[in-house]
Design brief:
The complex is a heterodimer of chains A (434) and B (249). Chain A contains ten helices and seven strands. Chain A is mainly alpha-helical. In chain A, the strands form three sheets. Chain A has a three-stranded antiparallel sheet with strand order 1-7-6. In chain B, helix 3 packs antiparallel against helix 6. The termini of chain B are far apart. Classes of the chains: A mainly alpha (434), B mainly alpha (249).
């Protein structure tokens, strides 16, 4: 056995992909909570948008009226989203992907430029930051342009792309938290149920979209957050930090030719279509164990060599399995956002931006009540996300990421607000803790 | 009192846990997941308890015995959940070992198992600090402060942060002791943990009396130091045993 270092235990790298999704989701929620608490005005600025078309809530209404109005609002919103998703499916079917990509870029520009600008103005107003119009305009313009490019081009550094996607999620989520309270909660539940129906029912628009994309082996043009694929390396020459290896030739021993990689045995016997097979020594073979653990991303062909197959989620026909859902911005213009969870072509987990947005809306709304609800809802959402990821590994098809998390989050919010808070405050104020 | 004071109180309660997290737990993603799931478990236990007790709250009486019943039931329930946590952990350990065999990696080391136990305890401790101390800290970020009658020498936030620190320590390390006790079948350890938890809970009852926190808090810290020392001794003993066993084989 190696005398210099202990053999790496299985605990070193297990669960890394899940953490890579949980970290940006947590970051998005954290930023929205900070924005909400900092910019919280006692008089809610009423936002007239599609979501409040049917009924605008006032404080003087009775609870039942508020509930009915909120239900009406939510139904209108879901109907609009369904209609737009069907239009999206139609456009995708007619192969107008150029138009869709342009539209995606346009909506990113709107979100970053206008929404981001308005929120920046709120912040400047709140903190009395001394900045002049010209500087502000130039900075905002640059920010927006880089963001649109990051969303459009896949050749941008991945950290920038991920950062901009998180920022877009934060901005849209903040605008959603400006909706009145009852409407927000009913809307969240309605969207969770819609997501469930749209992805799993046979006639659902998202299911159609995913099947279309799979049958054509194409990418759906939409805003999706993709976690960095994890590479495992046992040679000890690297620090084991995962890198997104672009533009590298395939030099692995054992490549995949489209089969499911869940072999469970030595994967270097899985010789599919091996290219110039020079197993670059040291980086591919590991010491002492007969199994290499390297997964490379071949960008040109979108093929993955999954080494440590148990640790990486197996591919499904090497294709994307994502689902699309279209969201309405609060400013009544459309934005294309992807929702749902699936597996990317590199085996990394993909989460749609709509999920980020709705999780953050839930937590932001909880922040408007108290911080205890924020912590409880955060834990509930992360638990829901974990359950969804486990189901994803189990069922291996595109799954809606909203229902479990949102329903758990709403449940925990109401439980905390009505039960836990009284209990904890009573105990704490008497300095009784256990 | 100000943002600085608010952050100070938060760090007082959570500082050691945060450094433990950054140093030990953040390196291994599996441990982060363990922390999150044990935090969730603690939260669920707290919600169940508050659901059960909701009908009786707010307790208006100033007598101490309703609170004592509250604490005894809560501690009992949480210790029961700890056993459940242990059973789930056993199953997880078997799964992990089978997985390690399949990918030809070594099975879980003793230090790995202890780290998982530590992560579980840290999750419980962080949940305690977050829900009992941090969630009430929101007013501390504003311009004023708050005093309770029964402990009027220090601001309420400071007292609750100090108590939370002691209880976080107890939670974190008693999980290590408990898991070790269940693994070895050591009866002393198995009863040590619920005992310490119960005593710590009852000791905070002293805070009900006016000026009681002068006695209550040092006693609480005594329990925390006791837990720390016991855990340290136990870990040292296990590690030396393990090392000598490995040296022999």
């Amino acid at each position: 056995m190696d005398q210099n270092s202990k053999p790496r235990s299985v605990l070193q790298s297990l669960g890394e992909e899940i953490i890579r999704i949980i970290v940006p989701v947590s970051l998005c929620m954290f930023l929205v909570v900070i924005l909400v608490t900092v910019l919280n005005t006692s008089s809610s600025t009423s936002v007239t948008s599609i979501a409040t078309m049917a009924y605008s809530e006032t404080d003087s209404d009775s609870s039942w009226n508020k509930f009915k109005g909120a239900l009406l609002n939510a139904l209108v919103f879901v109907a609009v989203v369904t209609a737009v998703t069907f239009i999206l499916v139609l456009l995708f079917y007619l192969r107008l992907t150029k138009f869709l990509k342009l539209y995606m870029g346009f909506s990113a520009c709107l979100v970053l430029g206008f929404m981001g600008g308005e929120i920046a103005l709120f912040l400047i107003d709140n903190f009395s930051v001394p900045v002049d119009c010209v500087t502000f305009a130039v900075v905002l313009f640059n920010f927006t342009v880089v963001g649109v490019l990051a969303v459009f081009m896949s050749k941008m550094a991945i950290l920038i792309t991920q950062g901009y996607l998180v920022i877009i999620g934060v901005l849209v989520a903040y605008w959603f938290t400006l909706l009145p309270e009852w409407t927000t909660w009913v809307l969240l539940v309605a969207m969770a149920l819609y997501d469930l129906a749209a992805v799993l029912l046979p006639g659902g628009p998202l299911k159609l979209l995913v099947e279309l994309a799979m049958s054509r082996d194409e990418d759906i043009p939409a805003l999706v957050y993709e976690a960095r694929p994890v590479t495992y390396d046992d040679s000890g020459l690297r620090s084991g930090v995962a890198q997104r290896r672009l533009w590298r030739e395939r030099r692995a021993v054992g490549s995949n030719s489209g089969e499911n990689l869940n072999s469970g045995s030595n994967t270097n016997s899985n010789v599919g279509s091996v290219l110039d097979s020079n197993p670059t020594p040291g980086t591919v073979l590991s010491v002492g164990s007969g199994q290499h653990a390297t997964s490379l991303v071949n960008v040109e062909e979108g093929r993955v060599v999954g080494g440590d197959t148990e640790l990486s989620v197996p591919l499904i026909d090497r294709r994307l399995n994502v689902q699309v859902n279209v969201r309405e911005e609060a400013m009544s213009s459309d934005s294309l956002a992807l929702e749902g969870i699936g597996l990317g072509s590199s085996g990394a987990i993909k989460l749609g931006l709509g999920d980020f947005i709705f999780y953050s809306v839930l937590v932001g709304r909880a922040a408007m009540y108290d911080f205890m609800t924020v912590y409880a809802c955060y834990l509930a959402i992360i638990a829901g996300l974990g359950i969804t990821l486990m189901l994803l590994a189990l069922y291996q098809k595109a799954l809606p990421a909203l229902p479990v998390s949102v329903l758990l989050g709403v449940l925990f919010y109401f439980l905390t607000r009505f039960f836990l808070e009284v209990f904890v405050v009573q105990c704490s104020l008497n300095l009784l803790m256990f | 009192m100000t943002v600085a004071a608010g952050i100070g109180y938060a760090l007082l309660a959570l500082g050691p846990s945060l450094s433990l997290f950054v140093a030990v737990i953040s390196k291994k993603p599996f441990l982060i997941l363990t922390v999150l799931s044990s935090t969730l478990l603690w939260l669920i236990s707290l919600i169940v308890l508050s659901g059960v007790w909701r009908a009786f709250l707010p307790l208006k009486s100033t007598a101490w015995w309703p609170f004592a019943i509250l604490i005894i039931t809560s501690v009992g329930f949480q210790e029961g959940l700890r056993i459940l946590f242990w059973k789930v952990y056993k199953r997880l350990e078997d799964l992990l070992d089978a997985f390690a065999d399949r990918v030809s990696k070594p099975r879980l080391f003793l230090t790995d198992k202890m780290q998982i136990a530590l992560a579980g305890g840290l999750g419980h401790g962080m949940a305690h600090a977050v829900f009992f101390c941090l969630s009430l800290l929101t007013p501390a970020f504003g311009p004023a402060t708050f005093y309770v009658d029964s402990c009027s020498q220090l601001p309420f936030f400071l007292v609750s942060a100090i108590i939370s620190l002691a209880l976080v320590t107890i939670h974190t390390f008693s999980m290590v002791i408990a898991f070790n006790g269940y693994a070895e079948g050591n009866k002393v350890d198995q009863f040590f943990v619920p005992g310490v938890h119960l005593v710590a809970g009852m000791v905070t009852l002293a805070n009900l009396a006016s000026g009681g926190c002068i006695i209550g808090i040092p006693l609480l810290y005594f329990m925390a130091i006791l837990t720390l020392m016991h855990c340290g001794k136990m870990v040292w003993r296990r590690l030396t045993e393990d090392r000598s066993r490995q040296g022999r084989s």
